[in-house]
């Protein structure tokens, strides 16, 4: 009997579910995550998304092989544990999500941080193919990161390496200092995420928001390049869909790194696969 896989991209704003056959996405479903509604409701929504995918006509007569989950939060991949989440309700932590879903659907479940999945997906199937040293970042409600060095994803002790959104950065912030979802001030995502952009656009205008956020993002990228020396940085998330911002980021990055010749060949590009990178990467 032919097999199919399911992949979920669970963000703070929306959840995207996909049916995947032979590394090709053949069906997408999108729903609000309702991330502020509490642990029980969020888990029920995840389970319902999977049930809805299984019920699709595209998989009639096929057998479910596995489920991949990319989730915006701190994930212990080895133990299948959601350690914590910054932009979800405060009780959505210390959850053995892999076990919950495996017990429910009786198939293997892979769980990882969403941007690690994004980085894996772009490296295998997208614009990162052929590169061995990659940084992936997504800019949405928060900022997430994935690090690939010599073709290996860096995980750190608890699989939380790449929490770039909580680097400290003073940047070019011109409004009131925004408190991050984690409760701290001067986090990278509090001055450079899509959420930060919206606050700036409301306070000033879109052009000024583009200028400030691009400047702050370039500072963050330069810091990451000095530490990790990637060949390519792949940017994703709804903020990067604005072409004007991407152009400004590249210009700011070149200006800020002009005294560092070892960084001049670093490529900064937008995702090729978009959110599909997370979905495909969750199954790797």
TrEMBL record:
<dbReference type="Pfam" id="PF00480">
    <property type="entry name" value="ROK"/>
</dbReference>
<protein>
    <recommendedName>
        <fullName>ROK family protein</fullName>
    </recommendedName>
</protein>
<dbReference type="InterPro" id="IPR043129">
    <property type="entry name" value="ATPase_NBD"/>
</dbReference>
<comment type="similarity">
    <text>Belongs to the ROK (NagC/XylR) family.</text>
</comment>
<dbReference type="InterPro" id="IPR000600">
    <property type="entry name" value="ROK"/>
</dbReference>
């Amino acid at each position: 009997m032919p097999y199919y896989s399911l992949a979920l991209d669970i963000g703070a704003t929306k959840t995207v579910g996909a049916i995947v056959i032979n590394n090709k996405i053949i069906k997408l479903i999108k729903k609000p995550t309702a991330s502020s509604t509490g642990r029980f409701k969020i888990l029920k929504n995840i389970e319902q998304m999977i049930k809805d995918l299984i019920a699709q006509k595209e998989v009639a007569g096929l057998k479910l092989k596995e489920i991949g989950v990319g989730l915006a939060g701190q994930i212990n991949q080895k133990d299948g544990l959601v350690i914590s989440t910054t932009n979800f309700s405060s009780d959505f932590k210390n959850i053995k999500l892999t076990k919950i879903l495996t017990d429910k659907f009786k198939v293997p479940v892979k769980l990882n941080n969403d941007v690690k999945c994004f980085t894996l997906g772009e490296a295998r199937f997208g614009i990162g193919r052929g590169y061995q040293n990659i940084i992936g970042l997504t800019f949405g409600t928060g900022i997430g990161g994935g690090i690939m060095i010599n073709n290996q994803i860096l995980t750190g002790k608890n699989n939380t390496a790449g929490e770039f959104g909580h680097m400290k950065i003073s940047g070019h912030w011109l409004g009131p200092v925004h408190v991050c979802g984690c409760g701290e001030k001067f986090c990278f995502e509090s001055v450079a995420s899509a959420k930060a952009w919206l606050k700036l656009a409301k306070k000033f205008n879109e052009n000024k928001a583009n200028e400030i956020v691009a400047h702050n993002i370039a500072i963050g990228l330069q810091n990451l390049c000095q530490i990790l020396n990637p060949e390519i940085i792949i940017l994703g998330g709804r903020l990067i869909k604005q072409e004007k911002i991407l152009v400004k980021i590249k210009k700011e990055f070149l200006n800020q790194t002009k005294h560092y010749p070892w960084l001049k060949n670093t490529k900064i590009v937008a995702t090729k696969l978009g959110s599909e990178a997370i979905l495909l990467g969750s199954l790797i």
